Amino acid sequence: MGDEEHIEDARALAGVPDGFDRFWTPYRMAYINGDHKPADASSGECPFCGAPGRSDEDALIVHRGRTCFVLMNLFPYNSGHMLVCPYRHVSDYTDLTPEERDELGALTATAMRVEREVAHPHGFNLGMNQGEVAGAGIAAHLHQHVVPRWAGDANFLPIIARTKAIPELLEDARNRLSAAWPDEGGTTTAHAPTTPRPQED
């Protein structure tokens, strides 16, 4: 055949054909294998406690407040998925101080405004899972999810294949959101380019 490329029909290879296409996502093995999961519930093992000691770019921090900070979710449910965390290693919402609770709420609202400015979502999922039984991936350190949603952003992949297609790199999303985050006076610190809504086939 010379230099001509030969493509084999997968149906002729080993295994029983099942009619499904394969969307290979080897990067998800990091999540499946528990990478970045703390070995125990201590603050020394907690990725949320360690993040503020690193650079914003390295830790994917979007904004640092007085008692809480905002960072990108390393394993996002959707593009632009942010987490709002207190600096303090605390697991339960009722254990937050009034100042922490107020700032967590204020940063959540600002995260929504910034996301609307740069990505124009049609809605949001907000929430926090309290305890492992409730689905908290890192139960020892409270974190509020801010997940932008678009009409049609869920297709067969998350429903059938338990896989989510994320069309934007976390670093790019962090840079875009950080640039659009308002300063203390309420004005945007820099002009942030907008990003189109996620499109999934």
Radius of gyration: 20 Å
- What oligomerization state is this entry in? single chain
Low-confidence stretches: 188-201
Overall residue-averaged pLDDT value: 79
Describe the largest sheet.
5 strands, antiparallel
Count of helical segments? 6
For the record, give the distance between the C-alpha atoms at the N and C termini, rounded to a whole number.
35 Å
Order of helices and strands: HHHEEEHEEHH
For the largest sheet, list the strands in their spatial order.
1-2-3-5-4
Shape: globular
Query: How many beta-strand runs?
Result: 5
Determine the structural class based on helices, strands and strand pairing.
alpha+beta
Task: Estimate percent helicity.
Answer: 25-40%
Beta-sheet strand percentage? 5-15%
Summarize the structure.
By secondary structure, the protein is of the alpha+beta class.
Characteristic key phrases:
five-stranded antiparallel sheet; globular; alpha+beta; single chain; 201 residues
What does it look like?
The radius of gyration is 20 Å and the shape is globular. The two termini are 35 Å apart. The protein has 201 residues and is of the alpha+beta class. The chain has a 5-stranded antiparallel sheet. It has 6 helices and 5 strands. A hairpin with a 3-residue loop joins strand 1 and strand 2 (68-72).
